[in-house]
Design brief:
mainly beta; 5-stranded parallel beta sheet; 4-stranded mixed beta sheet
Length: 169
């Protein structure tokens, strides 16, 4: 078990990367940044409850945490980096709060949740670098979430069946 005390406001790049023995993480209020690759490859982590003071999650921060099943992202988070949860193949339970205005490419790719198309309809979701409100899997229409300020590189690459994209004002 790793307990991050309230005096820590940032977890640096690669701080716990590859620590496969970590099975439980506890964060206290005060943490604002989880840097790039901080917990990359920590295959023992099963649940992640992030503190309400967290503002950003860096690139590849939890990439390859294959046992991670659920993530609670607080309303304070504004930014989720590139490939943050990529390869978290057991991840099936998470919600992206409305506070998030920037989601990096492949942030939730190769997770259990978005590999199952039944979870796509009428749900807030992330599909190939674009935060969406809903996806009609029959006609391949999508609507980008209000408040999204960035559509990342390669957002719709290889989406040949996509016919309509609605971008809010």
């Amino acid at each position: 078990m790793v307990r991050i005390p309230s005096g820590v406001d940032q977890i640096g790049a690669l701080a716990f990367s590859g620590c496969t023995g970590i099975t439980e993480l506890t964060f206290k209020k005060g943490l604002t940044v989880i840097s790039d690759e901080a917990f990359k490859g920590c295959t023992g982590i099963t649940e992640l409850i992030l503190p309400s003071t967290l503002l950003s999650i860096g690139e590849n921060a939890f990439n390859g945490c294959t046992s991670l099943e659920s993530v609670t992202i607080p309303n304070s988070v504004k930014s989720i980096g590139l490939a943050t949860f990529f390869g978290c193949t057991s991840l099936a339970d998470f919600t992206i709060p409305n506070s998030v205005t920037n989601v990096g490419p492949s942030a939730f790719s190769n997770t259990s949740y978005y590999n199952d198309e039944t979870n796509w309809e009428n749900d807030l979701l992330y599909v190939d670098n674009c935060l969406l409100e809903a996806k009609d899997t029959v006609s391949n229409n999508c609507t980008i979430k209000d408040g999204t300020r960035l559509i990342a590189s390669y957002a719709f690459v290889f989406k040949a069946t996509l016919t309509t994209i609605t971008i809010p004002d």
